[in-house]
Amino acid sequence: MIDQKQYLAVKLGIDVHADSYVVVRQVDGSTPQTSQKFRTRESFLRFVSKQQSEAEQVYACYEAGPFGWSRFNNRRQVSSYTGLCPSEHSSGKKRRQGHITKHGNPRVRAKLVECAWRLVRYQPDYPPIQKFRAALLEKKTSPAARKKAIVAVTRRLAVDLWRLFTDQTTLEQIGLLIKPSIG
After folding, report:
1. Cα separations (Å) of 107 from 22, 63, 67, 104?
2. Fewest CB within 10 angstroms: 37, 72, 130, 156, which?
3. Chain centroid to CA 58: how far?
């Protein structure tokens, strides 16, 4: 007997804390349901497994860490945490900025860079992408220039996400569009 799926798409927002897993579930584009908290990894995995058996497609948005976005007080702290702030070589009146420090969380930085490349493809009207469009999309651009441009877009994305999740702005003000899901 073939397994019948009840839903087309289930979206899960997963926030991992030191002592629990918090999940917000949205079914077929409806209003997200009240969050559920799972104390053990096993109960969380059983829940996710059940979602996979009930839906044709399961999407997950994952945020890990014992702290939230509200732990940062300004954009510089966000850039520092992600390791996307430039190093600085200063002497007297001379100020020279160098490569990114990479002193932050490497996993977060890698995921943000991947998100930035996805934005280049799916959100071409995002203002930082517009600013660096030539460097990102031109065939004659050197790989080094392309990397510098995507790091600049990534830094701005990290700051914009912080502003968004701390209710300082909206998606429309940032310049991101929500596209309806296919299916």
Report:
1. 20, 11, 15, 9
2. 130
3. 18
Residue 90, both tokens: 């200063």
Task: Classify 86 as helix, strand or coil.
Answer: strand
Q: Which two tokens stand for residue 11?
A: 């979206």
Distance from the first to the final alpha carbon of the chain: 25
156-169: pLDDT as tens digits: 999 998 898 888 98
pLDDT tens column, 129-147? 999 999 999 989 999 999 9
Task: Report yes or no: 51 and 59 within 8 Å, Cβ to Cβ.
Answer: no
Q: Would you call 116 exposed, middle or buried from its count of C-beta atoms within 10 A (0-12, 13-18, 19+)?
A: buried
Q: What is the pTM of this model?
A: 0.64
The shares of helix, strand and coil residues in the chain, as percent rounded to the nearest 5, are 45, 25, 35
Quote the CA–CA distance of 153 and 170 in Å, as a whole number.
18
Q: Are 146 and 139 in contact (CB under 8 A)?
A: no
Strand-pair partners of 86: 100
